[in-house]
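Now produce a polypeptide, keeping tokens residue-aligned:
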Amino acid sequence: MASRDEIKFLNNPNIGQRKKKYCRFRKYGIKYIDYKDPDFLLQFINEQGKILPRRITGNSLKFQRKIATAVKRARHLAMLPYVTDLLK
């Protein structure tokens, strides 16, 4: 019987296996999201200035709501734009 090391695959057997998403706030113990830090909030918005969804960022529901609130407050204070062309 051939071992797994001896078997040659035509394609990569790791294709289709995704990395597990995790909430970075729970992992690193971040409790407060500061709306006055636009550089940090830029990680959670795309090039047009839209807030990225949970399925892409991997955040938990609790922290996704806090991010949305922080981004909206930063927009209101003109720290982040509402709409833009190629922000990043």
Observations:
- The CA atoms of residues 47 and 86 lie 5 Å apart.
- Helices lie at 24-28, 38-41, 54-57, 61-76.
- DSSP finds four helices and no strands in the chain.
- The chain has a mean pLDDT of 87.
